[in-house]
Please model this.
Amino acid sequence: MANVSQRAQGLGTENAFIVLAEVNKLIREGRDVISFCIGQPDFHTPMNIQDAGVKAIREGRHGYTPSAGIAELRQAVADDFMRTRGIKVDADDVVVAAGAKPFIAYTILSTTDYGAGDEVIYPVPGFPIYESQIKASGAVGVPIYLRESRNFSFDPQELADKITPKTKLLILNSPQNPTGGIISKKDMEAIAEILRKHPQIWIFADEIYGRLIYEGEFVSIASLPGMQERTIISDGCSKTWAMTGWRLGFAANKKLAPFFTTWITNTESCASQITQWAGVEALNGPQDDANRMRDIFHKRRDLIVGLLNHVPGVTCKNPGGAFYAWPNVTEACKITGCKDSEEFRKRLLNEAGLAVLADIHFGPRVEGEGQHIRLSYAASDDAIKQGVQRMTDFINKNRV
Model:
């Protein structure tokens, strides 16, 4: 019998999709489930972007493009990075892929060598694909912990303490998934100052939620002195323009762009040409719908945080960006006799018809930080109100 590789067997996943499959199974069985598990805007893609995609189809733009992407989109991304980050990016330094997610793997593969003991520092809790791709690439993952007392940022001194001669890459995500936390300008400047002492370290700046800011300001580390040339800026269309299924992401770095292009040639060939033309319209066209969606997310954030802070045994910090709430449910677990957030999560789904994710879906639980769950508030006001009420009713009904 032929064997499956250890790499494949050990490959991690994104649990949001696993829980979503559980939700869909329950719904097919006739269960009433409110889902906060998937990080996906619940809006339609703006009509002008849809029209650009249809126009591309009608005009016969169906074939391969250069692996790095069409020139018009690469220029649009470069211009957008100038507007939003205040840095000059050449279109030739931009590479386009089928979503922003592939650039996580391409970056790790381009900055570390398999089995060499090269280290990648990554945030915990964090997007689970960071850890899974570090392992699959044969690098060594070094978690850096986001703490509730710091509004889910990490202490720059902790970063300094974790850097070794083997450190090759630091992954930064701001605003963050799953906490919604934002790395402040003060902390970003402190991080940059530390990294100036270690010129061998690349930075992967996952800025996919950069336009979804409600508190403070968005700061790209690439905008700080000496940081742009060693930073891979990663962004995409999924969150800002409700284009998750279109699959369009982009990254910029002068030195690594040719290598990213080669990776794409080896894997995807290119992103969909139709999607790329829609992306040009997303970046260059009117932003009224994107701004409207952001304002709605802001109102939903205020709604869900306010409601969660009235649930017995639950406290919730105000996330500065993205569309996730990360409430502390330590006391709620005790009240209901749940041993941890994962049991709490499972019981909410099966007994209350409420789908959320547990903290362990985003890396190892941070010692001393208690129990947390993630709720995506990319859902209607009514769903938010009913969902939080189901959590309240579940806790009150199951007091031990």
Notes: The chain is about 40% helix and 10% strand.
